[in-house]
Specification:
6 helices, 0% strand, 125 residues
Length: 125
């Protein structure tokens, strides 16, 4: 089927892109991060890391020696900076100023996924 059969022009894909872009910007603004500059986002992230680091201290997990659901949630957020997006300024910040958060990610990973490297190499889950 040809889009022309429905009265659509060649401009339709561009209108879709513009609509999509506008929609995503609206979501980001509504969520909050679209309202801040990159510097402000970094500063907010740093404050969040500081609060988490202070709370964790030298504990193995957030609430002591046993992992909780909260540990799983926090790990899910931190892991993107520690293991996935290693070239981000947030990753460098964690490694430099919050080594306990990096250690924490390694601890949670080792407890729940002792085969982490193996699974990543195989591409399985």
């Amino acid at each position: 089927m040809d889009p022309k059969d429905f009265g659509f022009s060649k401009q339709l894909p561009w209108l879709g892109v513009l609509y999509f872009r506008r929609t995503i910007r609206g979501y980001c603004y509504g969520q909050g991060m679209g309202r801040h500059s990159e510097e402000e986002i970094f500063r907010i992230g740093r404050l969040d890391f500081q609060a988490l680091s202070d709370y964790l201290g030298e504990k193995k997990f957030l609430f002591g020696d046993k992992p909780s659901e909260t540990d799983c949630s926090v790990f899910g957020m931190l892991v993107q900076f520690v293991f996935s997006n290693t070239e981000s300024p947030h990753c460098a910040l964690i490694k430099k100023e919050f080594p306990n958060l990096e250690r924490y990610c390694h601890t949670v990973r080792d407890v729940f996924w002792p085969d982490w490297d193996e699974v990543l190499k195989e591409g399985s889950s």
